[in-house]
Amino acid sequence: SLSFHSADSGASPPYSTATGGEGSEWGAAGPSSSGSSLGALPERRRPRGRRPRQQVVKELEAQEIRWFYLEERKVWKAFIGYDSLRLEQAFRAAGPRGAAEDSPGAAVEPVCVRGGLYEVNVVNAESYPVYWNQTEKIPVMRGQWFIDGTWQPLEEEESNLIEQEHLNHFRGQQLRESFDMEVSQPADGREVIHSLKLSCKHVDWHSVDEVYLYSDAATSKIARTVKRKLGFSKASSSGTRLHRGYVEEATLEDKPPETSHIVFVVHGIGQKMDQGRIIKNTALMRDNARKIEDKCFPNLATRVEFLPVEWRSKLTLDKDTVDSITPDTVRGLRAMLNSSAMDIMYYTSPFYRDELVGSLQQELNRLYTLFCSRNPEFEKKGGKVSIVSHSLGCVIAYDVMTGWNPVRFYEQLLQREEEEDEPEDRRMSYEERCLLEELHIAKQRSREIEERLHELRASAISNPPVLKFKVENFFCMGSPLAVFLALRGIQPGNSGSQDHILPRTTCNRLLNIFHPSDPVAYRLEPLILKHYSNIPPVQIHWYDPANLLPYDDVGLNFGNPTNEPTSLNDSESGSAVPSPTTSPVMARRRYGESITNIGRASMLGAASIGMGLRRMLFSRFGQSSTTTLQPLETGNDGAKEDDGEETTTVGTPPSSDSTSGFPRPTAELEHRIDFELREGLVGSRYLSAVTSHTAYWSSMDIALFLLKFLYKDDQEDADESNLVTG
């Protein structure tokens, strides 16, 4: 028989990844058919929409019953086959629901469902999340009878009554040899062989497998009477066709792949104002990722799981002191600012900062420990962990990973200044030198006493937070991290290594995602190499095109500097001549640049191509290598010849010292860090500035972007295996 594990963090894995074969929980023959078990799995599998032939009426098998859950009070959603079978097993093992609820010592093991994210109590018919708190429980229902067309289940109480009545009157009777469930045949002219009266409805049986449900409301009766006078039958006028058993049989193979990568999703400011928002945003991101997986990664044997990290709601911080000093005027606006922007002030305060950092660090470690306890094979099989952070959450997550502490940073600065501050010996009297020597000895003694005091009071300055896992990818969305790092004194260097701002030993890959109109987001690449301020960020692909260029293969595009005009009036097309076989060098589009300027910049690129083709023709058809060509000048009327003295020798590569004033540097980043969402061609940038900071969660482009990096190793392994098998 099936055994179900405890939901506690120390329990064995409640969500098995077996496929139902010889090594699975149910063995090769399926679950036992005795007593409260599921019954033997039949060899045949019911095709979609068609019942098997030569079947008699008997109790529904576990494969024909389907369990559902109701999320956000919308429509009932069916559990996958693997979950439904496990729920049915637990339901039958618990006995009748009323008896199980009345027995005082009955402890029913919860069943893990939906990839291990939720658990179900079959006795209370409720589902609840495992990794986060949720006030509202999710109702679940056992479906036996279903509405034709939508395949929504009838309410469980009505379904149980209809099922009991059906078995009492038709048990053992033969069903029709062939019955197409997709094509509903009307029961016109057929007599009713049995009826069942419910509270406000009644059910008519026209045959063993032709069952209709009718409403007994006054309006429904009047409508039925009018339609029957017009020649319509009772069944076709107001009856709802019912089906016994779900359209698809539940199978053990219908289950999600094994989780090989978990992604912790960290929120930014505003969680106190809208508690639970990070749970909804994570669910939105997870749903988008599932759609992208089905479309772009259908053959992978593993999956990525997204877990929300809610670090703000448990903190009290000032114990409502700020609310007490808030004036009553424009109270709504002030309350919104206190619940959102106040988090930034809390984080810059040395009194509250450690609480915020410690809360996030503890929550990350708690979630990781809980996940590994429920999935013990995760670490053994080399499971990876990534973090997706938004807004201020990027800064806090960065400090958690690196252990940055402002108090310790200030002490290091003071110590450095004291070491550099050497007294000048000249023009000092003997008495001054003696006093300075005594002062030096006193400072040294004071420093020793302070060190001993710090050892005794180690809690005075918190130790650097330590995570129980290494971060594979750190995705920042709408992040102000670059500003915080700049204010901490980080300056661009000469090396293109990510270690300049985030060591690879702590995080393997740092990626900064932002919308061009997001006023909170800043670039990170110029903090490593300054000249990257003149190199546009990598454009994030749209999620629908095929054969996309991998992001690691995207080359550098050296655009114009920020202060260089990109209009045709102010720029010379001859300043940077591309090869005739390559695309033109496009000017860097500034964030305030209009679509008109973009079109004019494309005309500038076309003129550059024309000049490149002309150079190639002259060099190949009889022109001397010493022949000079006059560069073209683009003015208001198009491309014109320049009468100036400046000449360029044919065949000589353009100088790295272009007229833009920015030579092409030799130092490059080991990999790109800044990635920019594409802007729509229609819409106001000022309106986008208001909405763009919260638009990352619903973006399908970002979902594809994340999966491209999260599945990078798995995709490469799959491609290699395909080459070997091919």
UniProtKB/TrEMBL annotation:
Pfam families for this protein: DDHD
Domain DDHD: 467-712
GO cellular component labels: cytoplasm
Skewed-composition ranges (Low complexity): 25-41, 647-656
GO terms, molecular function: metal ion binding; phospholipase activity
Record-stated family: Belongs to the PA-PLA1 family.
Name of the protein described by the UniProt record: DDHD1 Phospholipase
Organism: Ceuthmochares aereus
